[in-house]
Amino acid sequence: xxxxxxxxxxxxxxxxxxxxxxxxxxxxxxxxxxxxxxxxxxxxxxxxxxxxxxxxxxxxxxxxxxxxxxxxxxxxxxxxxxxxxxxxxxxxxxxxxxxxxxxxxxxxxxxxxxxxxxxxxxxxxxxxxxxxxxxxxxxxxxxxxxxxxxxxxxxxxxxxxxxxxxxxxxxxxxxxxxxxxxxxxxxxxxxxxxxxxxxxxxxxxxxxxxxxxxxxxxxxxxxxxxxxxxxxxxxxxxxxxxxxxxxxxxxxxxxxxxxxxxxxxxxxxxxxxxxxxxxxxxxxxxxxxxxxxxxxxxxxxxxxxxxxxxxxxxxxxxxxxxxxxxxxxxxxxxxxxxxxxxxxxxxxxxxxxxxxxxxxxxxxxxxxxxxxxxxxxxxxxxxxxxxxxxxxxxxxxxxxxxxxxxxxxxxxxxxxxxxxxxxxxxxxxxxxxxxxxxxxx
Length: 441
Known about the structure:
Helices cover about 30% and strands about 20% of the residues. It has 14 helices and 13 strands. By secondary structure, the chain is of the alpha/beta class. A hairpin with a 4-residue loop joins strand 12 and strand 13 (about 425-430). Helix 4 (about 95-110) crosses helix 6 and helix 10 packs parallel to helix 11 (about 320-335).
């Protein structure tokens, strides 16, 4: 590597768990390409007061709560002894820790790395997660007292992974609300560039330990009344909560090539900013999002017209979606000709809003599309919101599966996430030619 020139950071492996029983990237892509909606009724095996949640709409000033969400079917499944955890300690562990450990393990296997052979290695672990009120209050005497100090610690989401692997690099859980997992990718990439670790695992996880998020958004009338997350749609009435987990393996390009790892994508640039003061903290800012996109594009050293696909935040809220669309139209949409639009979608339309894990699910969606050389439909895209002047630029919703032609020997995509605390995160990824592309060259 020449002095002063930063080496490229690439993604060499990935793993995912998503609603609908999805536990592999292939199953995830099949669902997305098929336009599947992975929404199911509330789980009845979590000791949630489901009847109370579903009756919140009867209260004066509260919104309806549909019996629907994007829930992980295997959230309670865990082999504690395999990961060196006692059964009693495992019960006291936030399920986000359990899911994060096994998804990280699978990401290593997907890369071609033996997870059991990493003891003492300088590997970074950066995971996005948020508190979800798992289990009884700590200020009580019960069978799990003594284990909850780590079992419910947010920092232990990343710490469990490092502990299970025996790695000694940086290990941290990041909470920037719904921007958490892309923020984790940003920190991991910078840590590798800065020599803090040799390579890293990065991603995010969300498993709801309680239905608290449904209470909060019911009070604010922010939930989808019909049980569908209609990202960027004129018929959107609010968001729909979901769960999920995803982890990617980041390393330098030279390391990936030396070890024979696949290169799924190159991280051209990542940036994070904040809305600043002005509107209430939960209100997004189109200006801040636009500034972030412009800075990320500049850092990537590309023209915004080079980006063909955008995986947006797309919560389905009447306030959030139009602001995001404005920022995207002013940057990517304004750079493209009308007959060659940039395509926008959101995995939330398939699986609900996975909160701290939403960004990594979107990033993995983009990587899978690049690997297969196709774009996939965003659900409910046939009815775009009228809160944006679509004719003012070349931003369009992705309505169908179609071939994604490379430009200059690669495919470029952008991924966005925005947090309720005011943090915004944006990532630009370049994906290499597929084997089928090479066969036609």
